[in-house]
Amino acid sequence: MNKKDNPVITVLKCIAIVVFLLVLSCVLATLPAFRGKNLRVPYDKSKAVAEVIDDRELFTNKQIKELNSALLDCSHELEMNVIVFVSGSAISDDDTADFAIRQYDSEVGKENVDGVVLYLDFSGKRPAYDTISGIGKAGIIFDKKEREAILDEVGAYLPSSDVEPDPAMVKGAIEQFCLILETHNDNYKTEKLHYEKDEYMKLYFFDTGDDFYVTKQMAPGALFVRFIISFGLGCIVAFIIYFVTKHRYKFKNKTNPSVYVSSDKTFFSQRTDTFIRTYTTKHRIDSGSSGGGHRSGGGHRSGGCSSGRHR
Q1: DSSP secondary-structure letter at 90?
Q2: 212 pLDDT exceeds 50?
Q3: Angle at 261 between CA 257 and CA 263, to 5 degrees
């Protein structure tokens, strides 16, 4: 190692480079080129869908009408569709979110249209499993933390799964749900590097501050996180190699092979290159096709971010 090299200066230079690249990645992550095509379909007030789907046949026609009116007001306030599905048939917990989003699609009729769907399990399954899903901008406004909080707040007004549901009590819970959504929507603040992901549809949800996005391309926040992890690991490896190399060669001097050779007794009559090792590099040839697993159920649906809880 060169005696002029100062390990402290070298480490400080590396840290400066890391800080510079992190700042640069933050700037690049906010550029339009990193957003991809926006698949989100904005809410259209003239085509608003706000309704209760009473699969359990729990409510009277009058109660349904009153609930639909409350949901429509909530829809206009949030500028997104609002659907509540009251289930009377048991399905597995894992399939609940996918089922709810497909119900949303069947009512709204478009992909990734701004909206939220609440699935209430009154099938008699114990424990019951309720879910809430956000589509379009609702996927980021009502992120994982917000969705879990909303389910907890709504759950406080719902009957437990081991008793026969009281229609008036469930109606009151749905009306409270509207108020809870509006409160969480009012408290929303833009975080440009925050994102949500639909693992099933492989879609990212994020807010640039100017618009909400739903894209297949990795969200800026996800790119930034990946960069930090990979670059951090690279720096650790680089530092380890640097200090190990410094330690190994610290006390070793350069060796001149001529000191072992007598100039008056050595004579080379022939020179040849003899290789004592052979290295072979192999490259895998991609055939262009590969197998892969897929989730059962098939078919396309809107992207959505979902959370669930037992009741």
Answers
A1: -
A2: yes
A3: 125
